[in-house]
């Protein structure tokens, strides 16, 4: 399903399959998160400002008008189908909001021999959710509990600050 | 949260840089005794005084504004904070009990140690240990939120932490402004009152919450040992001044594996060390976001990650101090 979601994001999915993929997304919170993260990453890579609450609302409205995701005439969301809105709300109030983590690493140490076959790419994109959980644990209570949104646009870069 | 345009942010950053530069001369080093008295005065004022005002919090290029009130009548030490931009949020603390709006969806808890440590109250009440790793310089005088204040800087005595600059009200000793700086002495985080009332001018009615608040679980589990002890791990000497605050083992949100978490603090800044079974979802090495650094390495069959608002050498030192037996 991940491949199909990816294809949908890249506008490469057969329109006949849109409905099935979107139905699957509806059912599966993990796919919803995956979709969001890809969207953010894609936007970040193309130089757009990362996700805003406003974006999520527009996105929700669009998605609730599925299966014709991009049909402008159906942007008015029918009532009762705004399934993504609670998620958007949850995201905006989460202690650590949505984050794009673009990592580029210099490997710090040689991996162990049995790991050598799996090379670490020079520019690795790390799953945003992967790092977010650590940062949230680190900052739990340390930061202003009111200020969780301050992590919304963070992104990590190679090496140390100079 | 309100997002500022690039133009606004850069203008703001330029004026901040000018200001930082302007305040940087005529520094006078405080002796340890005066430094301790100074920090004690700031901590006591934040705890004992009544004050209410609006402050701005900047993190990276994000800016948010909050309104807060703090009252202490000798019986009850209470405060309320409210976000003024973006989605409404409220924080209310009476003694050690904290409630928030909106309710926390994640079921998380706040650490007891930090619930009373929000701006302008982040200084430890016993600053002796802090002064083992930071010295204090007096930089000059400046007006903040309409008040005359004196500018000081906590200068790290080694390479393992960043400078902090603060503005203290000449009258009350209250912190009016606090900047955590990065490698280039840029502002990494700023807290600054834009207006403040103190003493008898504070309207007590403002303490009353305006929304239905939900109590927050306060995590009062305390790390048992001063030195972290983890079966199967050798932990070598860590950077000076960092003490173990907390040692927990939990499943992080969205993860199906147990992660050991050691939280260290030098009194101002914190470093986390995470240990878990090795996986490849995090590339090894060093990364940073602004002045926040992260170091990931493999030790035996485990992954060790050190993370904190500290220089690269610090997270690297923490991560390499942990070795699987």
The arrangement of helices and strands of chain B along the chain is: HEHEEEEEEHHEEEEEEEEEEEEEEHE
> Tell me, what's the shape of chain A?
elongated
Could you say which structural class the secondary elements and strand pairing of chain B correspond to?
alpha+beta
The helix content of chain B is 10-25%
- Strand order within the widest beta sheet of chain B: 1-8-9-10-11-12-2-3-4-5-6-13
What proportion of the residues of chain B form beta strands (DSSP E)? 35-45%
Average pLDDT score of chain B: 86
Oligomeric grouping of the chains = heterodimer
Label the CATH architecture of the largest domain in chain B. Clam
Topology pattern of chain A, helix = H, strand = E: HHHHHHE
- Domain count of chain A: 2
Radius of gyration of chain B: 20 Å
Distance between the termini of chain A: 42 Å
């Amino acid at each position: 399903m991940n491949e199909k979601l990816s294809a949908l994001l890249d506008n490469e999915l057969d329109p006949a399959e849109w409905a099935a993929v979107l139905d699957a997304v509806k059912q599966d919170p993990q796919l919803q998160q995956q979709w969001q993260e890809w969207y953010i990453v894609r936007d970040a890579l193309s130089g757009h400002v990362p996700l805003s609450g406003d974006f999520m609302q527009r996105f929700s409205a669009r998605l609730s008008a599925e299966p014709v995701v991009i049909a402008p005439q159906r942007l008015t969301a029918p009532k009762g189908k705004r399934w993504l809105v609670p998620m958007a709300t949850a995201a905006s109030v989460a202690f650590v909001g949505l984050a794009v983590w673009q990592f580029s690493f210099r490997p710090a140490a040689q991996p162990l021999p049995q790991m050598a076959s799996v090379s670490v790419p020079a520019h690795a994109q790390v799953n945003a959710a992967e790092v977010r959980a650590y940062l949230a644990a680190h900052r739990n209570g340390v930061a202003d509990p009111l200020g969780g949104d301050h992590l919304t646009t963070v992104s990590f870069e190679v090496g140390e600050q100079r | 949260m309100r997002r500022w345009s690039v133009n606004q942010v850069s203008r703001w950053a330029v004026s901040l840089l000018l200001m930082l530069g302007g305040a940087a001369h005529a520094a006078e080093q405080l002796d340890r005794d005066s430094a301790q008295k100074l920090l004690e005065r700031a901590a006591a004022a934040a705890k004992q005084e009544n004050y209410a005002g609006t402050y701005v919090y900047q993190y990276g290029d994000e800016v948010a504004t909050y309104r807060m009130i703090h009252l202490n009548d000798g019986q009850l030490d209470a405060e309320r904070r409210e976000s003024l931009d973006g989605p409404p949020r409220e924080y209310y603390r009476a003694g050690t009990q904290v409630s928030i709006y909106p309710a926390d969806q994640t079921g998380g808890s706040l650490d007891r140690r930090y619930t009373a440590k929000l701006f302008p109250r982040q200084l430890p009440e016993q600053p002796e240990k802090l002064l083992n790793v930071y010295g204090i310089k007096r930089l000059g005088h400046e007006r903040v939120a309409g008040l005359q204040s004196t500018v000081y800087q906590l200068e790290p005595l080694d390479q393992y932490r960043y400078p902090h600059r603060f503005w203290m009200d000449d009258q009350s000793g209250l912190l009016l402004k606090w900047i955590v700086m990065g490698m280039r002495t840029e502002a990494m985080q700023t807290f600054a009152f834009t207006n403040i009332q103190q003493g008898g001018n504070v309207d007590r009615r403002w303490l009353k919450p305006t929304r239905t608040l939900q109590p927050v679980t306060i995590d009062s589990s305390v790390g048992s040992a001063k030195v972290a002890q983890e079966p199967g791990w050798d932990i070598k000497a860590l950077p000076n001044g960092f003490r173990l605050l907390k040692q927990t083992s939990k499943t992080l949100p969205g993860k199906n594996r147990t992660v050991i978490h050691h939280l260290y603090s030098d009194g101002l800044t914190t470093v986390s060390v995470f240990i878990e079974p090795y996986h490849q979802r995090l590339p090894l090495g060093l990364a940073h976001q602004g002045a926040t650094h992260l170091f990931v390495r493999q030790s035996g069959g485990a992954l060790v990650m050190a993370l904190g608002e500290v220089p690269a050498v610090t997270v690297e030192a923490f991560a390499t101090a942990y070795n699987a037996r």
